[in-house]
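Second attempt. The first submission of PNPLA domain-containing protein had a stray character pasted in from the spreadsheet, which I only caught after the job came back as garbage. Lesson logged: always re-copy from the clean sequence file. Corrected sequence (78 aa) follows.
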Amino acid sequence: MKVLVADGGGMRTAFTAGALIELHKRGFGASYFDLLVGSSGGLCGQSYFATGQVDEGERIWANHMHGKFMKWDGLKTL
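This time the job returned cleanly.
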């Protein structure tokens, strides 16, 4: 049985979204897996993945979520 688990929680949600987008681009869509499971923000990404709307999910991440999880103001450069 092939199960795809997508976790959430801050930066993990962003990583999970990227992983789901890449799986889709490489031809591993929802039908490849027997079960899709998600928690918290991972469930949101799984919803786009499960319904084949990965492009829409990617657009939302790129246009609306950029910079929402980490604030770079005040960080010193090396």
